[in-house]
Design goal:
alpha/beta; 6-stranded mixed β-sheet; 5-stranded mixed β-sheet; 16 strands; 61% helix; 7% strand; CHAT_dom; CHAT domain-containing protein
Length: 1061
């Protein structure tokens, strides 16, 4: 017997099946050989029953439970009346009944468990060592019955007895972890029923303590981690704090990872982990999470025994995840499988079970989702039927009732939009009003409830014109947008609805300003610093046009100042974040050196982790995923620390707006004195230019009524089609040849004249840009055509285009045929900038370049692996290097195999200017992995950004498509030229599309010849890129003049562009 009991104790730590099998076998043998009158037979039977229960918990074999209950009943029959072991036997019997109830869900079992435990409580001495065990077991059983029946008094009794158990158990006692765990589970359950935040905070506190005091490797640890993870998940649902769902997933991952593959509780733990992945997906939209959720929950459903009491819950959760993935991907098989899983969950659930209401409403939601996709009226009828049933069955104090009502109201609204049945409208409003009345202030779901009711009121307003309905709709949208709780994505939706409803019905309302202010501040939260750069770009794809829409509304209201502020705040967000993290904190340092150092250190860490952290993906091993999620949790902690430090800095007088988006008055400071910056906003509603001039307090607003987003898209289509036809995707030896060549190369030919003498489409596009956009701006600015014969230098002008205009060559707009021919080159020297601050920061911080670093480094990489040869780069670099030496410029060059990637980085630190004659490759999905291709590897933009290029001046990117952005992120300047500006270069020469090898050589050599010729002679051997915009203007003019104005020729010189100061 002693050996069997020893194996049982060993199993409690090890979880090893051989230990528990050995214990059962030895104890069974001891019972078999014991005589009927053996005085310790009840002890043998009790230990055997306990071992059988433990083995059931490990294997899920319900026959072990049945046998356990049988032998423990027999123990009760043979134990002498009043024996001191009686309470322990009753405790064990109650535990076995409780386990069987969890498995089968029969109320007679949970009643039997409570009866046995309460009997034990009546007879056990108050100083008995087993009293805490009995109290915690009774509490756990009361919790089980509450979960089935919804009886709140059971829950109060459970917490009372479990708290008493904890109080009676000394620190260090081996039973303390389990008692704390059970108490935490009860607090969580009461929170689910009452929504009292104190309960879930208490659950997390005692649950964390339970995990902390459980020995590492103990077989109870996975269960305690599961309970703690569930508490964090519930609090996330209430508050929306990302740190809570991260902690939930971390705990649940550890639980699954430490649970043996054949353990009976593995399905439950997989289900819980999957549910947390789903919650995070709903918050962040990261597809990996929803795939991981479905994978874990599918596995849970496969592993759990048929007939298990928890099977309906697992099926319903799996259905939720499948439905969520359908809403993201549109794959109809997902929603069909979701409905099937929900229907099965409902069929398997007893009519008296509290979970039935949730399963019904989930089923209804999936029916509604499928109806929205297919229009099948039977689906929406089924949705309303099952959701109405859930509402009818729910008690008034059920914390899920607002959700049931909201979902039912949504289904009524969906049917209304198809059938026009007015009763559906009234029912939808009634359901949503009731849901709002029942939702506590501060609840994470409150913004969603407000949006739903606001949408219903707005719909009724469009039907009946009642201004009261419109007023109420606007009130609800505003309240949701300004809510301090709820997911930022939901609040952004509310802010957009608020703004757009005002624009449609009250276009002169000043609240439009507040609505868009709120929306744009939420964008920064959604694409926050706690995410990787890739994650931020993924989020921004769905909201890239918001700043443009806001700016158009501001122009309607004659508020060009707000238009400028919003365009700066809502565009190029990731580059702006990087710029913020690299801000010198000199002013703050003079007030609080320690705080400034802390902010600088946190900024550096955030920059590094944001660009280098690897994200998990579906199919990854759980151990690897856990490691990456731990890194993500650390990233989140850094972002929270950053916000805490900023808040502290803003408490210092004079620093109230520290690192906040700049107001117009600040943006208008430090403008260049050599020419204006022109921001061009384009939206579906209107097109406007904002000209920023040195010495002027506000932007000059220039409406462009003859231009539209449709025209911009049409011009871009013309250009894209032309480039596609001619294969202009990579720099090659001769994609476009010069005019005196015998062949046109790669199928290009002179532009044909139309049947009636009209120009080809590309000329129409350039003419349209000139007459509808550029010329009106130049006229408003008072610019006149420069007299080229007088060698007069044109003024500079910085273009800052938005939306589809970012892909169009504003710098070459013009009329190129006929007597009225003129173009931008006749008026100004053009540069581009992704943002206004990209220029004003460089004007403000006119740092001098270290004389030891001033110089030019060049490299040619003509034969990079897996790239077409570009032999002209060698000649190009050789000529520039030779002319640099002749001009007395400090210069260095490395060609092809001579240069490892690391050496290039070293040279970039040693020389203020670089010339990269090589292939460039842009990565739209991972912008920081955009790269330059070398013989011995590739140099990624992310690597350059990490380097300390404090003397960076000019980068000439003699590569292909280095300023070509991504359509889905047209307002984020996702290209190499903008990236090099972000890395610290003051000016960058790039290309809008692929360039020919010979034209590239000609432009580069003419460019540098201009710079060498215009050295002032006071810089010694240094190299200065200040005149680079003029140099490129001159070089492209020279190339243009060497050719005709055919379509072929235009494609040769147009792509060269200048970025920066």
């Amino acid at each position: 017997m002693r050996k069997g009991i020893g194996l049982l104790r060993t199993f409690q730590y090890s979880g090893n099946p051989s230990d528990i099998n050995g214990a059962v076998a030895m104890l069974q043998q001891a019972v078999n050989v014991a005589s009927p009158g053996y005085p310790h037979l009840h002890i043998l039977l009790s230990n055997l029953g306990n071992a059988l229960t433990r083995r059931f918990e490990r294997t899920g074999d319900i026959s072990d439970l049945a046998e356990s209950i049988s032998v423990q009943k027999r123990a009760l029959e043979v134990i002498p009346a009043g024996h001191g072991d009686l309470p322990g036997i009753l405790i064990n019997l109650g535990g076995s009944y409780a386990r069987r109830f969890e498995m089968k869900g029969e109320l007679s079992d949970v009643s039997g468990a409570i009866s046995a435990q309460q009997r034990a409580l009546r007879i056990i001495p108050q100083d008995h060592a087993h009293l805490p065990i009995l109290l915690t077991e009774l509490g756990a059983t009361l919790l089980l019955r509450c979960a089935h029946t919804g009886e709140l008094s059971d829950l109060g009794d459970a917490i009372s007895v479990q708290q008493r158990a904890v109080d009676l158990t000394p620190h260090g006692h081996p039973d303390l972890p389990r008692q704390l765990n059970n108490l935490g589970a009860s607090f969580t359950r009461r929170f689910e029923m009452t929504d009292n935040i104190f309960d879930v905070n208490s659950a997390i506190s005692v649950g964390q303590r339970a995990v902390d005091v459980t020995p590492h490797g103990h077989s109870d640890l996975p269960g305690h981690l599961t309970t703690l993870g569930g508490s964090f998940a519930r609090r996330f649902e209430r508050t929306g704090e990302l740190s809570d769902i991260a902690d939930a997933i971390s705990a649940q991952q550890r639980a699954v990872d430490s649970t043996p593959q054949d353990h009976a509780n593995l399905p439950i733990r997989l289900n819980n982990l999957g549910s947390s992945y789903l919650r995070r997906f709903e918050r962040t939209g990261e597809l990996t999470d929803i795939d991981d959720a479905i994978s874990a929950q599918n596995r849970a459903v496969r592993l759990i025994p048929q007939g298990h009491a928890h099977l309906p819950s697992l099926l319903s959760n799996l259905g939720n995840s499948l439905a969520s993935r359908f809403e993201r991907t549109g794959e109809l098989s997902d929603i069909s499988e979701a409905i099937s899983a929900h229907q099965r969950a409902v069929r398997l659930t007893p009519q008296t079970h509290t979970g039935l209401l949730i399963y019904l409403t989930n089923l209804g939601t999936s029916f509604t989702t499928r109806f929205n996709a297919t229009g099948e009226l039977s689906d929406i009828a089924d949705a309303i039927s099952v959701q109405q049933r859930a509402v009818d069955l729910a008690q008034q104090d059920n914390t899920n009732l607002p959700t049931f009502l909201t979902n039912l109201g949504t289904s009524y609204t969906c049917r209304l939009k198809v059938t026009g049945e007015l009763s559906d409208m009234e029912n939808a409003i009634a359901m949503r009003r009731r849901a709002l009345d029942l939702t506590p202030q501060g609840h994470a779901s409150l913004p969603s409830v407000l949006i739903n009711l606001g949408s219903a009121m707005h719909y009724r307003f469009t039907s009946n014109g009642d201004m009261g309905d419109l007023k109420e709709a606007l009130t609800h949208f505003k309240s949701a947008a300004l809510s301090t709780s709820g997911a930022p994505l939901i609040r952004l939706d509310a802010a957009q609805r608020w703004a757009r409803t005002l624009i449609e019905h009250q276009p002169h309302s000043n609240e439009i300003i507040l609505a868009f202010d709120t929306a744009l501040s939420l964008v920064a939260l959604i694409a926050g610093l706690e995410q990787t750069v890739r994650g931020r770009y993924t989020q921004l794809k769905s909201m890239s046009g918001l700043a443009l829409e806001a700016a158009a509304a501001a122009c309607d209201l004659d508020r060009p100042d707000k238009a400028l502020e919003w365009l700066e705040q809502g565009r190029c967000l990731v580059w702006n974040q990087l710029n913020t993290l690299r801000t010198p904190f000199d002013d703050l340092r003079s007030h609080n050196k320690d705080l400034a150092e802390s902010i600088a250190d946190t900024a550096k860490q955030l920059e590094n982790v944001g660009s280098s952290r690897v994200e998990s993906h579906s199919g990854m091993l759980l151990s690897k995923k856990m490691s990456l999620d731990d890194e993500a949790r650390g990233h989140l902690d850094l972002a929270e620390e950053w916000e805490r430090l900023l808040k502290k800095a803003r408490e210092i007088p004079g620093f109230e707006s520290f690192l906040m988006p700049m107001p117009c008055s600040s943006l208008m400071q430090h403008l260049p004195d050599s020419g204006p910056i022109v921001v061009i906003n384009i939206d579906g509603h209107r097109c406007d230019a904002l000209a920023l001039l040195d010495g002027v307090d506000e932007p000059l607003h220039i409406p462009l009524p003859n231009f539209s987003i449709e025209k911009a898209s049409a011009y871009r289509t013309v250009l894209a089609s032309l480039l596609q036809i001619h294969g202009l995707r990579v720099r090659a030896s001769d994609p476009v040849t010069t005019i005196d060549s015998d062949t046109f190369g790669r199928g290009l030919k002179s532009a044909p004249i139309g049947k009636y003498g009209e120009d080809p489409p590309v000329y129409d596009a350039l003419r349209g840009l000139w007459t509808e956009v550029v010329k009106p701006i130049l006229s408003a600015l008072g610019f006149s055509r420069v007299d080229q014969t007088a060698r007069e230098e044109p003024p500079r002008l910085w273009w800052c285009p938005t939306g589809p205009l970012s892909f169009l060559p504003l710098h070459s707009a013009g009329i190129y045929r006929g007597p009225d021919a003129e173009c931008v080159f006749d008026y100004v020297v053009s540069s581009y900038t992704p943002t206004v601050t990209a220029i004003t920061d460089r004007v403000k911080h006119r740092h001098s370049i270290d004389t030891h670093a001033s110089g030019l480094f060049l490299t040619s990489q003509p034969n990079a692996p897996r790239a077409s040869p570009i032999p002209g780069t060698t000649k190009e670099v050789q000529w520039i290097f030779k002319r640099a030496e002749e001009s007395g410029v400090r210069a260095s060059k490395l060609d092809g195999d001579e240069m490892p990637v690391i050496v290039c980085l070293d040279r970039m630190k040693e020389f203020s200017s670089i010339h990269l004659a090589c292939h460039g490759s842009q990565n739209a999905a991972e912008p920081l992995q955009s790269r330059f291709l070398f013989h011995q590897g590739h140099l990624e933009l992310g690597t350059i950004l990490k380097s300390n290029l404090k003397n960076a001046d000019l980068a000439f990117l003699s590569a292909c498509q280095t300023s070509t952005g991504q359509e889905a992120l047209s307002n984020e300047a996702v290209h190499l030229a903008a990236g090099m500006l972000a890395a610290g270069y003051r000016r960058v020469v790039g290309t809008m599309w692929s360039i020919g090898d010979k034209p590239a050589q000609q432009v580069a050599t003419t460019f540098y010849e201009y710079l060498f010729a215009h050295r002032d002679g006071t810089g010694g051997s240094g190299f200065d890129g200040t005149m680079s915009a003029y140099a490129l203007h001159h070089a492209t003019q020279q190339l243009r003049r060497s050719q005709d104005d055919s379509e072929r020729s235009l494609l040769t010189w147009i792509p060269f562009v200048h970025f920066g100061y």
